[in-house]
Every structure is written in C-alpha cells, then in structure tokens.
Write a structure and sequence with these properties.
By secondary structure, this protein is mainly alpha-helical. The protein contains five helices and six strands; from the N terminus they run E-E-H-E-E-H-E-E-H-H-H. The strands form three sheets. A two-stranded antiparallel sheet has the order 1-2. It has a two-stranded antiparallel ribbon with strand order 3-4. Strand 5 and strand 6 form a beta hairpin. The N terminus and C terminus are likely disordered.
Length: 134
C-alpha cells in the first residue's frame, strides 16, 4: 500500500544562499500533496484576498480524519481491507450493499483509491478508539 515513505527523504536539506544556515526542501511528492490540499481549500471557500482563512489546517485535518475514521471503522467491523495493488476498498460487489447500509459514507468511498491509508493510520491511529468496547 502506498504512502510517500519510499519517495520521501526527511533529510532533504539545502544551504541558504548565504551559506550559514540550512533549510528543508520539499520533495516533489510533498509539494504535490500540499498543492492538492490547497486547491481543495480554495474550492471550499477558504481562500481570501491575502491568504487563507483561519482554521484551514484544522479543516484539512478534519477531512483526512473523517476518511481515515470511516475506513478504520469499516475495516475493523467488517474484516475487509484495501486491495494490495489498487489501494481501493476490497469487497465483493454484492457485499457493498451491506457495507453501505451500515456505513452510509462508504458510498462516497467506493471506487476511490486510498494510497495514503497507512500514513493516515500512523498520523491519526491513536486518535480513534478501537476494540471491543469502543
């Protein structure tokens, strides 16, 4: 399953023009993800004349948490998971009706790829209760 871990180096540093300090430089994948997230914010009205409205980072976090939470619940309760190569929810077509009935949001997740699910799990995993009494 995906994520950016294989294409990402946290050691991507560049010396400043003055030579005395260094700064981290984004990889292509990081910049790609950031640009797509910012485009989504613009589409949802978070862009104002001189930047973004307050709370835009919280908005991005909430969107990602919502998808992660939905997927986690579906996977935990139903025993299904992501397809190894497509990163899409791996459930036979005839079982989708049952999944969607229990999790109405699953309808919007059908036929969508989640290559960063394992990254979300690393980021948000402890933010959700799991197990028998959750």
């Amino acid at each position: 399953m995906g994520g950016m871990e294989s294409n990402l180096s946290s050691d991507t540093w560049k010396k400043s023009d003055k030579g005395s300090t260094t700064r981290r430089v984004c990889t292509f994948q990081e910049e790609y993800a950031l640009v797509n997230g910012l485009k989504e914010l613009v589409a949802r009205g978070y862009k104002v004349d001189n930047g973004f409205k307050e709370g835009y980072v919280r908005f991005l976090e909430n969107v990602l948490k919502k998808h992660y939470g939905s997927l986690s619940s579906i996977f935990h309760d139903s025993g299904i998971g992501l397809h190894n190569t497509s990163d899409m929810i791996d459930v036979p077509e005839d079982k989708w009706v049952v999944v969607i009935k229990k999790y109405p949001l699953a309808h919007s997740l059908k036929n969508k790829s989640f290559p960063f699910y394992n990254d979300w799990k690393e980021i948000f995993g402890k933010d959700r209760a799991t197990g028998e009494n959750s």
